[in-house]
Each structure stands twice: as C-alpha cells, then as structure tokens.
Specification:
CATH topology of the largest domain: Neuraminidase
Number of strands: 31
Largest sheet: 7 strands, mixed
Oligomer: single chain
Length: 463
C-alpha cells in the first residue's frame, strides 16, 4: 500500500488576548516593499524545556525543527537573519516572553539595538513520542506580540511542525499563505540502472518516497487539484508484446490503487487535471501526429481538443488551476514549437511566443495571470515567465556548466503561492531541481545529490 506521508498535527492557539495584534490590517510586510528591502529577523536557537540530563537525547529534534523553519523563511526571500554573534543578550538565559511582564524575560531594547525588525522566540519539549513546540513572533519596533502558538505532534512529524510554523509566520507578517507544506512529484534515475521512476518528496527534497516500480521509463507526472492523486506515463511492456507503449496511469495516494487509464497505441502522456478534479487533458498520438484530448478519470475520451493543422504536433496541455476554460499548450503548427493558449473546447487559439528555436512545457501561475515555459535560443534551454497574453516576458535562468558551456533549464512549475518557479537544470552535470523567485531575483538549489531529476511538478499546500 502506498500512502501519502502526512503526519497528523494538532495546533493549539494561545488565548485570544495573547494573539492580539496591534496592527489592525495584520500586514507587517508589504510584498512590493519586500523586493527592495528585506526585514531583519532575529531567530535564536530553540530552548529545550526539559532536564539537562535529557537535553542531548532530544537535541536532534529541536535542531531539525529550527533548521526547517530557518530554511523556509530564508527561501521566502523576505528576511535577512541577524547573526547570533550580534545578539546582546543570551537567549538561553532569558524567557520566551518579554520583561517586565516576565521578570526573567528578554528585553526588547536588546533586539532593537541591533536593528531587528522581528524576533522569534521558541522552545520545545518531548513527552513520550510527542513533541510540543511553543512559539512567539514579535514586532521589535512595536515591542508587541504578533502571534503565539503551540504545535503538537509525533516526533516523526518534526519537519512538518517546522513547515507549519514557517507558514504561520509568513501568514502573520504578509497576509498571504506560504508554500512550505507543499510537495513535488518528479521522475528520477535514483532507483538505479536506466530506469526512471516516479518519486514524491517535500518541496525542499526531504522525505523522498518512490511511488512507481515499473523497471522502465516513467515521464511527465502530474498532481490532481486536491493533491490526492498522481497521473504519469510509463513505457509499459504489455503481455504478449515485444514492445513498450507510453501508457498513462493514475495512482491514488491514499489507497495505493493504481489504474491504467489511457493505453491507446502510441503516446498517452502529458496529463493536466482540470481544476474541478473531474477530467484530464493529455496528449494522444494513436499512430498519427499527437493532439490534445480530454478524458475522464476512467479513461473515457470526451473529445479531441486540437486537430492539426496539417499534421502539426499539439502537445503538453496545461489547464489553468483557477479557470478550467484556459489551456496552454505547445505546437509546431507555425513551423517551430511555440506556446499557445486556447479555450477548453479548442477554440480561441492564440499564439503567445514568436522568438527562439523551441518553446515548450508551459505552466500556469495559480491565478492564471502568468505562464512559465522553457525556451531554446541557441543550444540550451532557459526558463522564461510572461503574462498570460504573452507580454512582459522575462528570463529567469542563465547558468553555465563546469566546462563553460551554457546549461539547460527546463520543465517549469509554479509554487502554490505563485511566488516561485521550480525547474530542472543540468548546470552541475546532473539534472537537479532549482527554484527561483518569479521575478528571477533569487535562485536556490533544492536537490543536492548525484542523481538526475526530470519534470518536477509542484503540489498545492497539503495541510
């Protein structure tokens, strides 16, 4: 049985009085301003609420939570962390709440003196197999509490507790949800040999889990809108046949049930779920040039959406998450593969890209306002983002391999909050996963090993 690994997490808010916010709007960081000036964040190590004799035993759990939160908030691009060497008081010797209300508490003056905009104080305890994280987020300039919460769950859910807290910090300061509880689905050669199997992992590459085992080549995985199912294509050898066919499968992550949903002779690939969770758009060739079709989860075709023209390839359909009537796809109908949009019934076709040699892999932002794609100008691909009408195009990537040649960056996918784009890049010699802010101002490597990863897809937040 294959199950989605999702720890049950109990979150207990403090009293309404302690949760009160002086800022009535609830917005401490304006998103536009955050692009030009990062907020200074002080985040001391977690305190351990237990006996000194058990501190070393549980140090790893506290460090894991701290590192997850620190990495999440750093990746958000909103914060610059103050080095602990600059702290004017020893956080381990004062309480999590401020003086004078707490005689043994910290002093806001100690943090304002080093320029901190925000301060996180947190501590944890472990009883049996349960960890409790107690957290406080403060505005230093206002000398006030922004939010305080306790999080409880199994010790095995320490990473998830950290991601949840980081999401809550971002929500409290910006008014928008973070993406730290999301995951990615991707194909990789990490199972060994020539095979490519499908893997699930957290957005930061932790908690990797193999979910296919076909000893073949799996490609183009995709999430259902609710994050409970994954569709993908694998080259399956059928009984009595010497050849493998590119068949599409649907895996229910809760039950572990795997169904063969499109196995027409030829290509059955490039799944994209409609936002209502009822239908799938895909590419089918059936011995001819590939076109875009629409089908139900049981494999029943509901119609052929594209039809050439003149034997053209129409592939890689992707439905906008917020509008079932908006579909982007790539097509060589004008000679070179370019990015197009159309209505879900195949009408109102519009060409969006006109430059480059080969444009592919369109991906919608969650609000349907932007489209990311991979574009080839010379011998390599880079990631581009444009408005949904093709205007204001920007390049997100430009990297070189160790030998000095330009690297290829492909297969973009937007984060659930629309602030980041995930993609694969071969700049290290292996195809690894990276993310970039949607304006290209910051880029980070996500996977860091010697395997290859292909076609990453970002999930919704899986709370």
């Amino acid at each position: 049985m294959i199950r989605l690994l999702c720890a049950v997490l109990a979150i207990i808010a403090f009293s309404q009085a302690s949760m009160a916010q002086e800022n009535n709007s609830g917005i401490y960081i304006k998103l536009g301003e955050a692009r030009t000036k990062k907020s200074l964040m002080a985040f001391p190590a977690l305190q351990y609420f237990g006996t000194p004799a058990t501190a070393s035993r549980y140090h790893a759990t506290g460090a894991e939570i701290y590192n997850v939160v620190n990495n999440d908030l750093a990746v958000s691009s909103y914060f610059q962390f103050i080095d602990s060497k600059a702290f004017l008081e020893d956080p381990s010797k004062v309480g999590l709440t401020p003086a004078p209300g707490n005689p043994a508490g910290f002093k806001f003056q100690s943090w304002s003196a080093i320029g901190a905009d925000f301060l996180i104080r947190a501590g944890f305890s472990i009883a049996g197999n349960e960890v409790t994280l107690e957290t406080y987020l403060y505005s230093v300039s206002k000398a006030s509490l922004i939010a305080g919460k306790k999080y409880k769950g199994p010790v095995s859910s320490a990473r998830r507790i950290g991601h949840t807290f980081a999401n809550d910090v971002l929500k409290a300061l910006t008014g928008t949800d973070g993406m730290f509880l999301s995951r990615m689905v991707v194909t990789s050669d990490r199972a060994g040999g020539q095979a490519r199997e499908v893997y699930l992992m957290d957005w930061d590459s932790a908690n990797s889990m193999q979910i296919s085992k076909h000893s073949s080549v799996a490609i183009s995985p995709a999430w259902s809108p609710d994050g409970t199912k994954v569709a993908y294509t694998s080259y399956v050898k059928r009984v009595g046949s010497k050849f493998r066919n590119a068949d599409m499968l649907l895996l229910d992550l809760k039950s572990g049930k795997r169904s063969l949903i499109s196995y027409r002779q030829g290509i059955n690939s490039g799944a994209s779920f409609s936002p209502d969770g009822k239908t799938i758009f895909l590419t089918i060739s059936q011995g001819t040039s590939p076109d875009v079709y629409k089908m139900t989860y049981d494999g029943t075709l509901q119609g052929k959406i594209t039809n050439g023209p003149a034997g053209a390839m129409n592939v890689e359909p992707t439905v906008c998450p917020g509008d079932a009537n908006k579909v982007a796809f790539s097509s060589d109908r004008a000679g070179k593969p370019m990015i197009y949009t159309m209505d879900a019934n195949g009408g109102n076709v519009k060409r969006l890209t006109f430059a480059g040699v080969f444009n592919s892999s369109p991906s919608w932002s969650p609000d349907c306002k932007k489209i990311a794609f991979a574009g080839q100008s010379d011998s390599n691909f880079d990631i581009f983002v444009m408005n949904a009408d093709g205007s204001d195009m920007i390049r997100l990537t430009s990297a070189k391999k160790p030998n000095g040649k330009m690297a290829s960056n492909e297969d973009p996918s937007f984060s659930p909050d629309g602030r980041f784009v995930m993609y694969s890049s071969n700049r290290t010699g292996k195809s690894q996963i990276y993310i970039s802010t949607v304006d290209g101002s910051e880029e980070r490597r996500v996977t860091n090993d010697n395997y290859n990863y292909f076609k990453p897809k970002w999930s919704v937040n899986l709370e």
